[in-house]
Amino acid sequence: MTGTPTAGTAEPAHVPQHTRPVNRWTVLVVLCSSLLLVALDATVLHVAVPAVTEDLHPGAIQLLWIVDAYPLVAASLLILFGTLGDRVGRRRVLLMGYGLFAGASAIAAFAPSAHILIAARALLGVGGAMIMPATLSIIRQVFPDRRERAVAIGIWTAVAAVGAAVGPVLGGFLVEHFWWGSVFLVNIPLMAVMLPLGRWLLPESRGEQDGPWDVFGALTAAAGVLGAVLGVKDLGGGHGSGRLGGIVPLLVGVALLVMFVRRQRRREHPLIDMRMFSRPAFSTSVGCIVLAMLALVGLELIAVQYLQLVLGLSPFSTGLRLLPLTFAAMAAGLFGSRLLQRLGPRTMVSLGFLLTALAVLGLTVMGQHDRPWLLTGGFVLLGFGLETTLFGAYESMLSEAPAAQAGGAAAIGETSYQLGAGIGIALLGSVMNAAYAPGLARVPGVPSSSSAEAAKSLGEAYDVSGRLGGPAGAALRHAARHSFVHGLHMTLFVSAGLLLLGAVAALRLPRVMECGAAAAAAVAGIPAQADPAEVPARERALAR
Predict the structure, then answer these.
(1) Which ranges carry the Major facilitator superfamily (MFS) profile domain (predicted)?
(2) Which residue, 145, 188, 339, 398, has most beta carbons within 10 Å?
(3) d(CA 32, CA 298)
(4) Do 284 and 359 reside in the same domain of the chain?
């Protein structure tokens, strides 16, 4: 493999300019390490939710925000920092993200209240938004050959799966041996290593710098995404669809996003080239990423609570139960490039959705008793199916985008990933709450005030039943467990429906994976009949 270009080579401004020769696979190792940290923090708190609930006593909505603030804030700022990295340097923004991530982790670890913990998680989201777009955009630049890029993205998605799944294991170990704040302290030594390593090994990379940077557009997109998801969360909190507190931010968010799209279409130098969405492969890939993450993250959070609060497993044992999902996802990512070349994007992504839906439906037989083999089989199928879907969608999306728009395309991909994760927690959590709460409305011998408190969450129900004691406490505990399992089943059915919708949507993807010069020229925006002598050097390099 050849190394990436050096500062001495004559390259256009949008091609990565490096201070020293660096092999592209070394760059991939550093980028995947960055991604591992961000993915780890997205799930490391999940098994600590019961401990956080016991210590800080957050309400149901606060509990959702503690978990959800990180992906939502990250999603809202990805376009801002992705395009900023194109202008000032992706490595520079990446290193600033490392520093902010470490500082926010220290605040979160010692948060004395739910509000401060939510604020710290939001700061972590800002740091994550600085880190994430750089990984994909640099991969798009340093791997112009689609076959090599498919291998790189396969490794990238496998690392993301490892981080997301190792998070609960690491979090469970730390919660059992220390306290819930230790799940954040682990970030600090990792960032202390990544800062000098990234500064030394990562080459600087910039995109096109034509025209002014649209700061107002970036802020409009950030506010629009945040407002839309905030509205969905509030409406899904069990307060009723007529609540103005949910409708207003949702409408404002949608209006801001529409304004952002119109503004980008009118500008000569937009932050995001909206013409990319006119390509079926690009827009379909983005939609598939949203649907896949919507199903995955919400289910994982509910599954963690099921394993701990219903089956009574320890946090560490809960993390170990999720390891089969990790190994299956790793296998799908590592072998994804071969599968993609043999099956093509359409078949691969559709098959991934169908396998995941089958796994989710199989998990509906879960009840109040442990069935380890059933859970293991379901998690294996779930991990392989979802990772197959994400790999095929990411590879198709990134390959469909021109290299000059790598930063914008990466921001769109990561925004869809984080937005799907955030809405998934809100939507599936809301389905769970809606199915769980009615079962506690009338429990014999339990006062209505106690039932209302127990309806907030299963952890709250256990606390209330402990205070009540006697037959009333036992009845409340039994009713809460039964209602939670019922809510889990309803959530699984909704998730399966969304996955089947994704399988149908994936039929718009290309049938085969095109890797030749014609495909590279099409991505670069060159007519298929163009004479090779008329193709600029950058586009010929892409075709090689």
Answers:
(1) 27-514
(2) 398
(3) 24
(4) yes
**Residues 249 and 398 reside in one and the same domain:** no
**33-42, 215-224, 364-373, range with greatest mean pLDDT:** 215-224
**Prediction pTM value:** 0.72
- Could you tell me if residue 231 is inside a domain? yes
Whether 347 and 327 share a structural domain: yes
Distance separating alpha carbons of residues 357 and 504, to the nearest angstrom: 12
β-partners of residue 3 are 23
Rg (CA), the chain: 23
**The domain containing residue 103 runs over which residues?**
23-206
Per residue in 299-348, pLDDT tens? 676 777 788 888 888 777 777 787 787 788 888 877 877 888 888 889 99
What value does the mean pLDDT of the chain take? Answer: 76
Q: Say if residue 284 is in the same domain as residue 245.
A: no
E strand or H helix at 37: helix 24-43
CATH code for position 135: 1.20.1250.20
Asked if the structure places residue 75 within a domain, the reply is yes
Looking at the fold, whether 117 and 158 belong to one and the same domain comes out as yes
Nearest to 480 by CA among 535, 432, 543: 432
Which conformational region is residue 445 in: left (phi greater than 0), alpha (psi within -120 to 50 degrees), or beta? left
Cα dihedral angle (422, 140, 401, 334), rounded to 10 degrees?
-60
> Structurally, how many domains does the chain consist of?
3
- The yes-or-no verdict on residue 223 having pLDDT over 80 is yes
pLDDT at position 525 is 42
Neighbours of 473 (CB within 10 A): 18
Question: Is residue 536 situated within a structural domain?
Answer: no
Same domain, 221 and 171: no
Residue 16 inside a domain? The answer is no
Same domain? For 177 and 290 the reply is no
pLDDT above 60: residue 387: yes
CA dist 525 to 35, 271, 535, Å? 30, 18, 11
Other beta carbons within 10 angstroms of residue 219's beta carbon come to 16
Q: Which of 424, 423, 392, 398 is nearest to 412 (CA)?
A: 398
Q: Are 234 and 326 part of one and the same domain?
A: no
Give the rounded percent of residues in the chain with a pLDDT score beyond 90.
Answer: 3
User: What does the buried/exposed string (b/e) look like for 24-36 if buried means 16 or more CB atoms within 10 Å of the residue's CB?
Assistant: bbbbbebbbbbbb
